[in-house]
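INTERNAL TRANSFER SHEET
From: sequence group
To: structure group
Subject: S1C family serine protease

Please process the attached sequence and return the structure record in the designated field. Keep the field labels unchanged so the import script can parse them.
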Amino acid sequence: MGYYDQTEITREQKKTRKSIKPIVSSLLSGIVGGALVLGVTTYKQEQQPTVEQNTAAVEAVTQNNDSAPNVSTQELSTNSSSIADIVDSLTPAIVGITNMQTQTSRDFFNSSSESVEAGTGSGFIFKKEGDAGYILTNNHVIEGAQSIEVTLYNGEKVPAELVGTDALTDIAVLKIDAEHVEVVAELGDSSQLRTGEDVIAIGNPLGEEFSRTVTQGIISGIDRTIDVTTSEGNWALDVLQTDAAINPGNSGGPLINMSGQVIGINSLKISDSGVEGLGFAIPSNDVVPIAEELLSNGKIQRPFLGVGLVEMSEVPQYYLQQNMSLPEEVTEGVIVGNVSPASPADEAGLKQQDVIISMNDQKITSSSDLRKFLYSETEIGEEVKVTLYRAGEKMTVTIKLTNKDATNA
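Return from structure group:
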């Protein structure tokens, strides 16, 4: 099947519910699966004209042209931005990325360690400044790496330094020496994309053997949201949908419009049996602010709440009602699995087994909902109103968010 890496393989495969987990476990969550319904258009077969009708039409045109004035003609120029031209111009900016991790081997007398390839992906150079060139890729391509190796378009391998990474948005920025940068890819405006627009993907499917493979497709959808599981918890990732072939190893590579601009980072696909042409890319307009903050701070600062979360679907209904005294009519929300000491949630008095149903009067149905609200609609230092059930009693508490990096929520 080839390799995405362990994180990507997990995201590609359809998840199934596991057995019921203890309520006190930290951060249990399930993936919400979704089905995309493809429309089928029926075309009506039109009646073809007869030979006599065609002959009459040609004669009529000939007669009309006999009396028509002479008109000057001009040969139309061909599109200079052909796929081949785009590929030629961008190829030096496309790189392969190898995640290197330390492997220790032991025998009866000795132990030894060596750096081995743990996974491969793609990326592209998007900036050159001073003595450094900067590369965009996916977080899951380099997550867990002890060292990172970049393969340039000419086959040369150079070391790369991790500038910063964000697991939730699956974006990472790497740095290489500027002497290796010949071309910088231009980031386009993904908000201008239309469904049906032509795009191409360039990357390294299945590793370096097929490096810089080019595939063509269209934008199949511009307003998609995919629920993913990351090392920082569940997240609803906003993506572009494309039918351009995206395979293991394409992750982190560019999705390119016909102007030669990068309008997305190829990130994941649906690979269930019988499913074809469902690939997804992170829109460039979502990538830019994350990349800029990673360049400035090396990390993303987000409001911090300080709770571990458990999905209600992971807990049997009888336990919710008998042990937690949750009213039967409360069927949506997210359960507090643990509270970090000295966190905003702790200081506001949140407790284990509290069931959060809304924040600032916005309905919360899952851990993904909570994170999306927290990170998209609140700011560090802001006070939020949290409505919850505790031992069957509905209450509202106010929590002041801090400047800590998000870990559990």
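Handover comment: The chain has eight helices and 18 strands. Residues 1-80 have pLDDT under 50 and may be disordered.
Transfer complete.
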